[in-house]
Amino acid sequence: MLISALFALYIYLHARRNGIKATGRFSLAEFFAATKYGAWAIGAPVVILGGIYTGIFSPTEAAGVACVYAMFVTMAMYKEITLRELFDVASRSMFLTAQIFIIVAVAGVYSWLLTISGAANAATEYIDAMNVEPWVILLVINIFLLLIGTVLDTASAILVLTPLLVPIAQTLGLDLVHFGIIVVVNLSIGTFTPPFGLNIFVAQAVFKAPLSSIYPGLAPFILLAIAGLLIITYVPALSLWILPLIL
Fold first, then answer.
1. What is the pLDDT of residue 189?
2. How far apart are CA 145 and CA 206, in angstroms?
3. Long-range contacts made by residues 96-105, C-beta under 8 angstroms, separation at least 24?
4. How big is the chain by its Cα radius of gyration, in Å?
5. Which region, left, alpha or beta, applies to residue 153 given φ > 0 means left and ψ of -120 to 50 means alpha?
6. What is the C-alpha to C-alpha distance for residues 112 and 118, in angstroms, rounded to an integer?
7. Where are the alpha helices (DSSP H) in 152-175?
């Protein structure tokens, strides 16, 4: 929400400065029409979270329920895919899932190697011996994760780096929920940071825009996202204030 607010403020000021006019005005009728059309899609998180918190099914079973619900809505309600196209989607999903399972398996071996080799403990002892202020170490971790996020997808980076970084976070006395948010925000910024940010190429494919125009346009958003990241990193209350209300 913080980063979204920074982006929104920049877009507003940029539009005012360059005389970019609004393309349309808010319409309550259009809002209700869009909400009505999207009601079935909005129902997905209701079904998933409602089923989990009422004890109807476990989080793992919720994944299966979500797939069945998505197939029903897409085919029966929105009629966006046919049965033949469903098999194509399932085939692509199978390959993607296989890739993720391979990463999970390798990450498990990697975590085991870190444990038996004592690499994580060695890293924490090295940081203790450096006698450096925690904010400096957090800054180094942020820079490291930003760079990793440009070349590695978020899920893979989390699986590979968590066993190494969590002991360091514990050494610094960080709340692990707060540290988890720091890691995810870092890696998310990496997805739209040149030269290898995945979302850059997604945007290029969707909007048919050349990279020469995308890169300059990204610069202010990257800077704002990093500013938001620093605020999130060094003001833990922004991430943790809600925990007593939900736990």
1. 92
2. 27
3. 100/155, 103/155, 103/156, 103/159, 103/160, 104/159
4. 22
5. beta
6. 10
7. 154-171
